[in-house]
Amino acid sequence: MRTTESSLFRQQAFIAGHWCDADNHATVTVTDPATGQPLGQVPDMGEAETRRAITAAHGALPAWRARPAQERSHILRRWFDLMIQHEAELAHLMTREQGKPLAEALGEIRYAASFLEWFAEEGKRVYGELIPAPRADRRLMVLRQGIGVCAAITPWNFPAAMITRKVAPALAAGCTMVLKPANETPFSALALAELAAQAGVPDGVFNIVTGDAVAIGGELTRHPDVRKLSFTGSTAVGRLLMAQCAPTIKKLSLELGGNAPFIVFDDADLDAAVEGAIAAKYRNAGQTCVCVNRIYVQDAVYDAFARRFADQAATLRVGPGLQADSQIGPLITPKALTQVQGLVDDARAQGARLLTGGDPHVLGGTFMAPTVLADVRPGMRVLREEIFGPVAPLVRFRDEQDVIRQANDTEFGLAAYFYTRDASRVWRVAEQLEYGMVGINTGMISNEVAPFGGVKQSGLGREGSRHGIEDYLEMKYVCQAV
Ligand code: ADP
């Protein structure tokens, strides 16, 4: 199938239920990271078009929030059904623009769809409260209502799931939304808008603007009618957007960078730990915010773990995502490859030992060989910065307190993982790790029913789970004299 033949391939933005171009007809070219060739264009929009989208979302709000939750739920459920019906087409489109192996893209489409299904149900359970009053002639109640017009800005590493994880709870809660997807991966977003329209999402309830991130982000954060911003991306941009939202006191959900430690204690099941580390390090070519960034291995098992882990990493097949047996696709851009290579070179220059990989892959382009570095020491950039590539640094540690201190020694606090068979250590370590999410004896933790999010400078709020809808609700206290 050629991407451009897909019935869901749209090269226009989606505002007020209409497909539209930029006012000045300018476009941004989207590239296939596996070939470096252009895949298509999307409108290069700015402030004026964003304002129009906000006006559309504001106009659509009263009718959408007035609908019974069950009606909104049925529409979201239809959207879920359409995603599943078109899963192969959506996965293909995603692999073309994002690069991840097709099987992973299909996994993401199902994961993305699961948020529509989940929040279609949760939207029906937005219960209020009755509070026993402190005096006899009063009745106290709490209503929970959708916050209003929401803005979302999403990244390229999960082009579908990062969108549905925001838009599903927003729409379920009776909010309307303006979304700016990443310029690297707008086609997955636009395909979702087409399916939303087919599912019966009314005009103006879900809008997509593409183009100039600074201009669009500026307008979304400045506009007083936007009551909330949900952002997934880097901590640097999150910090900037938070500041931009301050003058209008918008509610914020931020899913920012991570620096996930993966700790292997000497009582761990080593085979399971190797398997878990491979999965949590190399999926999406290491380009996820919960990807393992630092692997700490206790003295007694360090050499055995390093050998087995590096052997497994070396067998991972690098190739274009559309090739059936590929396990690691290209990195998103040439710049990403340069950054990852820079971290490897820096570590090696400071004495880290290369166990496998270390260079761009022979395929060229932005393909990078799976890389394992041993004898990495505190202070090296590769332990402090988010790697976002298929590079695993191994660090030797002595005891539990020592490794907990090292694991927590970062401004980030998104995901952490550890492997042990000691039941009391499970609790001790889980409680002391300063992270929003902890995987114990597993490297895969994300699903729609659990709260995803970070502490410290990894963000604010939670997505998914029964808590994910809270970020789109406001409480209203109602006091009645009787
Ligand atoms: P990444 O490094 O993963 O690309 P970014 O934080 O740069 O993460 O990008 C995440 C999203 O934020 C993308 O949609 C991008 O276009 C957008 N973005 C980047 N810079 C800005 C900005 N100054 N204002 C608003 N959005 C931005």
What would a concise description of this structure say?
By secondary structure, the protein is of the alpha/beta class. The protein is 39% helix and 21% strand.
Write up this protein.
Residues 19-478 form the Aldehyde dehydrogenase domain. InterPro entries: Ald_DH/histidinol_DH, Ald_DH_C, Ald_DH_CS_CYS, Ald_DH_CS_GLU, Ald_DH_N, Aldehyde_DH_dom, Aldehyde_DH_Superfamily, Succ_semiAld_DH. One of its GO terms (molecular function) is succinate-semialdehyde dehydrogenase (NAD+) activity. Its EC number is 1.2.1.79. The protein contains 14 helices and 20 strands. With 482 residues, it is an alpha/beta fold. The protein has two domains: 13-256 and 458-481, Aldehyde Dehydrogenase, Chain A, domain 1 (3-Layer(aba) Sandwich), CATH 3.40.605.10; 260-440, Aldehyde Dehydrogenase, Chain A, domain 2 (3-Layer(aba) Sandwich), CATH 3.40.309.10. It starts with 12 loop residues before the first strand and ends with a strand. It has a seven-stranded mixed sheet, sandwiched between helices. A six-stranded mixed sheet has the order 9-8-7-10-11-19, with helices on both faces. The model has no long low-confidence stretch (mean pLDDT 97). 39% of the residues lie in helices and 21% in strands. The protein binds adenosine-5'-diphosphate. The site of adenosine-5'-diphosphate has 15 residues, from α7 and α8. Adenosine-5'-diphosphate is lined by residues 153-156, 180, 182-183, 213-214, 217, 233-234, 237, 240-241.
